[in-house]
Amino acid sequence: MRTLRDDLGYLSVRALLGGARVLPLSVLRAVGRTLGAAALAFPGRDRARAREHLALAFPDRDRGWRDGVLRRCARHLGTVLGEVAWLWSAPPSAILARSEFVGLENLTGALTSDRGAALVTGHCGNWEWLNLALGAAGVGMTVAARELDDSRFDEVARRLRGRFGGETALRGKGAGAKLVQALRRGRVTGLLIDQDIAAPGVYAEFFGRPAWTPIGAALLPLRTGCPIVPGFAARRADGTMELTFDPPIAPDQMGDLEVQASRLTALLTARIERQVRDHPEQWVWMHKRWRHQPGEGEPIWSAQGAQGRNGQPSNAAGAG
Q: What is the pTM of this model?
């Protein structure tokens, strides 16, 4: 049954990508919104988990407000699917015409021929649009990504990200070296750090609760000296994708590397939280973001330093 489901899913994706060549973006978005709304109508663990997470993140909001966010989130994720189908074959001029860059100079101004920049983001808005719009604008992108379970879907994702010269560094052995090489060629490395994954990390505060967060996005700039630029995609009401880039963060390479990376990871996580608060319907609330929790004595990092579970300063070296 799983093989049949995967086969049907793959054939459906291929059909959608093929049909997208003759359909305008507005129609693809409308189809996606309809599919997203329909998916929410069926009971499932994802919907229950999303409700739980919204209550955890916004305890001061009532159930009606949170359910409204969930409905808009379902439509948003469906819209992302329609947009990805459009991005599969849209010419760069069409992508750029529907993108609004805010602070792009913060990213491009940090680049040299032999030193790139680390673009850190989360699953906010349409993160694939962010990657492809930068590629369409002539910014060399190398993105870190997880290899998908089905190799056919993995190939589709890699071909999508490979448009306009994009590269993919699959998570695992050799990924770090590939990202370092990309930075030394003056490219931008794209890293998403808002999911609980099986990778080296720290517990960083996210909506007031510890969340296991990969630390690689902080270690990479600390070890190479390249700047870090937080950047995000957000869909506007008129359908334009707003792509915002913060001023670059120069990594502090003095002091204990692990402490600096932990604090930087917490700082970036706080920035992602602010983006999610601004656009709560444009995030992936069904992800198991708080799946793992710290044990006794494990530090919980914030932008100010580390604390223990009881809120007291942790004994993490150099924290405070």
A: 0.91
